[in-house]
Amino acid sequence: MPVNDELLERFLAVDTTALCDADRTTRVVHSAIRPRSAATRILGPAFTVRCREDFLAVLRAVETAEPGDVIVVDGGARETALGGEMFARAALARSLGGIVVDGGYRDMSYVSTCALPVYSRFVTPRAGTASQLGELQVPVTCGGVAVNPGDLVLADDEGLIVVDPQRVESLLDAALAVKNTERRVIALLDGGATLSDAFNVADHVEALGRGEHSVLQALGSG
């Protein structure tokens, strides 16, 4: 799914926390895969890679992915660098959307200031070999979640999530509703209200105490 300016603008109006609140089944990449770059926000289709202890497939991906694509590398969660400064520079030059590696990354003196979002599980100086083809554009696992070619990868300072492209628009709508509710609650709290003034705390606790199903929700949110 191509990412246009309108979709990006809608993502900028929310965050991954609101997206997860809107759908608790959202695929959340393990928090061990952390941002290593100055830029953290990602929105783009996954260009998937599977490799082990060898970065040739990542190089191939950087050279063949389309502008806006996010390279998602299933490196088997091994502490071997599958990318570094040169890959990040090349990805920037090709206008890719980011690099996410379930494995190692290196050259932090550059990457930490890089405008390309780069995420990895490890930082390590030891690079892999460059003698195995690996696999491109196949279903992979990254940070404990399934990622298919073309799935949308979204990230910000809170973390990384993966979304079916067919569902992203409805999910963004739901996330915006969450953010609007949050803004109303924040306005109440800033005005001196308590959490019990903003949420159905008493009714919720009483219902749970009776063994009934109940949902904690902001008052006036339906």
Automatic annotation (TrEMBL):
Uppermost EC category: lyase
Listed EC numbers: 4.1.1.112, 4.1.3.17
CDD domains: RraA_family
InterPro entries (alphabetical): RraA/RraA-like, RraA/RraA-like_sf
Cofactor(s) the record lists: a divalent metal cation
Catalysed reactions listed for this entry: 4-hydroxy-4-methyl-2-oxoglutarate = 2 pyruvate; oxaloacetate + H(+) = pyruvate + CO2
Domain of life, source organism: Bacteria
Pfam (any one): RraA-like
SUPFAM superfamilies assigned to the protein according to its UniProt record, in alphabetical order: RraA-like
Role played: Catalyzes the aldol cleavage of 4-hydroxy-4-methyl-2-oxoglutarate (HMG) into 2 molecules of pyruvate. Also contains a secondary oxaloacetate (OAA) decarboxylase activity due to the common pyruvate enolate transition state formed following C-C bond cleavage in the retro-aldol and decarboxylation reactions.
Family recorded in the similarity comment: Belongs to the class II aldolase/RraA-like family.
Subunit-structure text: Homotrimer.
Matches recorded under PANTHER family: 4-HYDROXY-4-METHYL-2-OXOGLUTARATE ALDOLASE 3-RELATED
Protein name: Putative 4-hydroxy-4-methyl-2-oxoglutarate aldolase
